[in-house]
Amino acid sequence: MKSNLLPPINRYPETEAFWDAANDNRLMLRHCPACQETSWYPRTHCPLCGAEKTEWLQASGRGSIYSFSIVRAARRPTAAAVVALPEGPSMTAVVVDSDVHAMRIGDPVDLRFLQA
Questions:
Q1: pLDDT per residue over 73-87, tens digit each?
Q2: 87: how many CB neighbours lie within 10 A of its CB?
């Protein structure tokens, strides 16, 4: 049986595919056919050119550290990071399962959704 990895959320029709994919450990982004740009966070219009229609695009699940800050208040240090995605946009994330003191800008990271 598949477990639900996500906490209860308010689901809206325009973000339903994002949450369904996240529950399967996949990241979905929005791609604009008009300007050919990909954006984060999910919305039906393009924030870059203003086009009214965007399409879902499954991201690779990989990225690289653009910037980060070590958080020592946790049981074990983690890092709040901005991750640059190869699809174009950047997004914030928490780096886990890594020696955050050895992290460097440009280090590769892989996506994993964690249970809340």
A1: 767 888 999 999 999
A2: 18
